[in-house]
Amino acid sequence: VSQGYHKFDIDKSKEGSKSYSIRRQSTDGLFGASREEAFSVSSPTTTHRWAIKDVPVFKVENYIFSPNNFIDRLSLQLSRTYDGQEYHDVANNWKKVNEEMRNAGDFGKPVYDENLWLDKVLAQVIRQEDNLLQKAKDIYYYVQKNYTCTNHDDKYITTSLQDVVKKKSGTVGDINLLLIAMLNHENIQVLPVLLSTSEAGRNYPSYPVMERLNYVIGKIHIRTTDYYLDATIPFLPFGKLPLDCYNGYVRVVSADSAAVYFEPDSLKETRMVSVFIFNDDGKELAGSFTNNMGFFESLNTKNTIAQSTLNKYEKDLKALYPESITVSNIEVDSLALPEENVAVKFDFKLNSFEDADIVYFNPLMGEGLMKNPFYAAERQYPVELPYLKDETYLLDMEIPKGYVVDEVPKSARVMLNDTEGSFEYIINKDAEKVQLRCRLQMNKVNFLPEDYQTLRDFYGYIVKKEAEQIVFKKIK
């Protein structure tokens, strides 16, 4: 198995033959004397030579999920042996892995045992109804809220399922295989799924590398829908997976050993920010801000607040804005609703228009890109974005009393390689208002090094455009 981003300068075979002298100990009968045998074996040989020259130093670049995927490497595995009469397969394969894992005492076997002891555990969890989907959700959220994952890099049961229940903690294997056992106990069609997380590197579809298969989740099928479940991540909604599970080839451990692909380009993060600014009764400008977060931003926000406090989150949010913007009345919606995205709302006042003759105002209010994420001038390896993206920023702003608009940025639309991404900055003004619609879409997640400069220039244009300001001039 070869991997890496550089081609072999030498990749050739040479056929030949070789004689081997073999010595071994043998014993005559059950209590016979030991003696040494010597014999020779002649065999055809294949000598294969691989070489790469002038390999550059490997530098970890941003937007690479797993450097292990790009380091030049050649791995050799014993395929089969021959004893002079027949061949014996040695190499691993998915069929063999599937059978072994299903029957393993630290993986599949405890999950599908009768597990009558689970009656007592689940008695207070399951609602008395026939709705399988609701029953599955009850079990999932019970495990998620009551069990703590201590290691996200171990697919096996490290103790016993009863012990996991007693300790209320364990590895990802302990907790998710317990989840599968509970679902199976309630006659919900469920299967384990083996995968490699992004840090472990991509798994090979043609050959199972057990060291890379470091994670296990559950798959249930209800009616006509498949749901993939990971109960080890706090606040993760039912049927959703963490970002590092989207790392390519995964394997369902079942009788037919089905293969599935979890790819980042199947994910789309959608975000909408709306800002309204208006003249209040006094001299100040007042406004309201709403950030309707995407799924992954919502998940991060819920975990951030859970690990500290809501007051700390609000304090940090206020600190993001300069003294000219006073933030108040912060609301964070849907923190306790696992299947709803977070919305952050707050009121603010703009203090920069107090008696200033000229005011420079950035209409994105800090929501734009501050710098180009692709800062390096050159790129050796592909860019791997975490997901597709659709971000929209809307501004509706009344012109401050006593001021006129002296200058506004120009509207613009830019495409990235026709269909791979787009950026639009549409601004309009009249005698009373300025309105802005700024939208960034990324329709592709993987970019080859030869496409890097185009991607870098695209983001460079966005940074420059979003830094432009509206100029307000005081009426004399």
Describe the protein.
With 476 residues, this protein is of the alpha+beta class. 20% of the residues lie in helices and 36% in strands. Strands 16-17-15-14-20-24-23-22 form an 8-stranded mixed beta sheet. It is flat and about 115 Å long. The termini are far apart.
How many DSSP E strands? 26
What percent of residues are in strands? 35-45%
> Cα distance, first to last residue?
76 Å
Radius of gyration: 30 Å
Shape: flat
Relative helix content:
10-25%
Average pLDDT level: 92
Number of helices: 9
Look at the helices and sheets and give the structural class. alpha+beta
Give the spatial strand order of the biggest sheet: 16-17-15-14-20-24-23-22
For the largest beta-sheet, the strand count, sense and barrel status come to: 8 strands, mixed
Low-confidence stretches: none
